[in-house]
Amino acid sequence: MIRAYKFLMYPTVRQAQSLGEMLRDHCSLYNGALEERRSAYQHVSKTTVRYGQQSGQLKDIRAFDPERQGRWSFSSQQATLRRLDKAFAAFFRRVKAGEAPGYPRFRSGLRFDTVDFPKDGDGCRWDSTPHDRPTRVRFQGVGHVKVKQHRPVAGKVKTVSVKREGRRWYVILTAEQTAPEPLPPTGSVVGVDMGIANFLADSGGEFVPNPRYGHKAAADLEAAQQALSRCKRGSKRRRKAVDTVARLHRKVRRQRLDHAHKTALALVREHDFIAHEDLTIRNMNKSPASKPDPEQPGGFLPNGAGAKAGLNRSIADAGWGVFLQILTAKAECAGREVMAVDPRNTSRRCPACGHTAKENRPTQEKFHCVSCGHHAHADTVGASNVLRAGLARRQAQPA
Q: Which strand (E) or helix (H) includes residue 81?
């Protein structure tokens, strides 16, 4: 299996400058390759330029500009060209599928933050030394950079990437390792229901509160965004304001990830089988369609867009998608089973008699069956139905 590790780097002033130049030159290579593809298609009778042709030109490009392109790793430049090739492959895939295509765009220096090295030892070298001296990673054209290695790297390092986040630099490793030993079985199964009032409710009646990190930081983010909007473009003050906004967003993102990791780890340790709703979060975050007013040409009727916008912010703040990805990955490593089930009517179906009706849920929290009188918390009922559907699907699967 492949596992990723992310460590904070502590470059010197000169090394940070060299890392910034590496990102700038790889961004220039990316934009130049994109311009070549666009020009060839538009002006040379719709000629298609592919990765193999552009990779073959790298030797001449490095010889022509040794100060900016020749000083960096050849393999990392090939990886940058592969990134562009993947962007075009995704563009054509969306065109064939009838989706919004999204033609690849030019990158500014502020939005090109990652350089990949496809192989450890080719333009980079991960040096995991004993504890008597700091861990370092070496990049061609930069030198040995100090790394804060907060946990050991298991397995053989395959790829190395350098990433800039604000004013911080990170090294990201992917290591190939054997499958870990599964956790001992507990004999417990659980269903979980994702929500807004509570982050999740399980079929045992337990609740995980929603921390609402984005909501708590909204006032500070609003003030920082307003301060940014008043700054003159290109000024030093604006750069500081941009860093402030990025720092606040980074804090919220880390808090959300930390909460997701801890919640998923607790579920994986306590249960052998976990069922959850198969949520289409992208569709849930869509804005409501406009309603033209038939009596007033060019006018529109109220469609609840304001309330839906608040719900969309709450869904994004909860981070369901990230949590479910982390839960699936941790369960795979621990030898647990995670299954997604159809979410339709899970909060309207009575777990006692099976009666399904909209009236069974009079409020957001209360569930009261109009057929048998069973009452409970609506989220607990939803989690119980999710577990029942997950167990039924598990038994129906061929061995």
A: helix 74-97
